[in-house]
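Chapter review: from sequence to fold.
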Amino acid sequence: MAEYDYDVLVIGAGPGGYVAAIRAAQLGLKTACVESRATLGGTCLNVGCIPSKALLHASEYFDAAANGAMAKMGIKVKPELDLDTMQGQRVDAVKGLTGGIEFLFKKNKVTWLKGHATFEDAHTVKVGDDSHSAENIVIATGSSVTPLPGVEIDQKVVVDSTGALELDKVPGKMVVIGGGVIGLELGSVWRRLGAEVTVVEYLDQILPGFDGDVRKESAKIFKKQGMILKTATKVTGVEVKKGKATVAIEPAKGGEAETLEADVVLVSIGRKPNTDGLGLDKIGLETNQRGQIETDHQFRTKVDGVWAIGDVIPGPMLAHKAEDEGIAVAENIAGQTGIVNHDVIPSVVYTWPEIAGVGLTEEAAKERGEVKVGKFPMLANSRAKTNHEPDGFVKVIADAKTDRVLGVWCIASVAGTMIAQAAQAMEFGATSEDIAYTCHAHPTHSEAIKEAAMAVTGKPIHI
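The token string follows.
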């Protein structure tokens, strides 16, 4: 048997890669992880999930103080924005968490190889001037921002999600290109801090892939908050002059063109898998039409000894999906059975209120057969009402014959936390009746899930 430097070498230290490396080491495998960033954690920890939540949370406090939510509860304040401090606490959050992963690498004896990895053959990668061999190599290189053809990102006037996190002043006018999760989250941060925000979305509704009711209700909520939504609209060009941008737009199906003036333009039209520079051609591995690496259910590629997980393979580009795949691939390499149920991966938009879903949309469920749907408004939930959080609803979609839950969608201040219950219920194959007859603590937002489940069979109590 050939002698290798490592049992497992993971390329990329994002949520998929670092988790795979730690789990492999826990299972007794000699493990290395290649990462070119100065810090571990990938996009998610450095310039994605974590820093955006730090700004979302802080901006929610500012908005509550500035726009009357606190006054309604008898707290009179006149807030003053200190953006430097707000950005400082974002940096601190990132520093703490990335440092935490470095500690976990040391604790679990994972070797961090600093630099870019390129395949020399199926069991060898070059990092800098050194070659490293491994019996198993896991590609976990994540994704990067999809560019908009003809639009140059300068990270000053025209920014991507990374630049939008690091603005040193609140723009007067901001145009967000793309009405998906990232655009709505970052757009909402700057709207709350005082910017006039216009979201331009090519499709006829925001939040592609989400349940239809959720998409409609979300649009109403964002408009009520002061966000301008231009759907079924395409951007034909962005011109920057003297620190200002002019965005040319026109109706997606043809019509009169117009222009929007902006201090900052955020390009957030999606993400693409990172495979450039890996040298996949050297090992005979090609990508599919979407630039992804195809794998089997165990995350093996067609090249023996090479595995892939996370944003670089098909499926939703979500940190928690990558983490689960990281655990599964390590367990599969170790000869155990690592499985990810891709039918039960929750999605969350961390706006205010939050928007979350798991499983099938009502539209997708109806294509497969007859369904029963239960809905319950947050306005009728006692905790939401007491907290002055009336917006949103919970929706439970169940199979009409078996009552098995096929999907749960919700808009609520804590929807991201609430959705875990739905995901766990679905993982256990729950029926709507199982959720309806599970005792929920009162008063909590989660009672809305119970009531929506009760509504599936026409017996909600509070509406």
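Two observations follow directly from the output. The chain has a mean pLDDT of 97. The longest strand covers residues 130-139.
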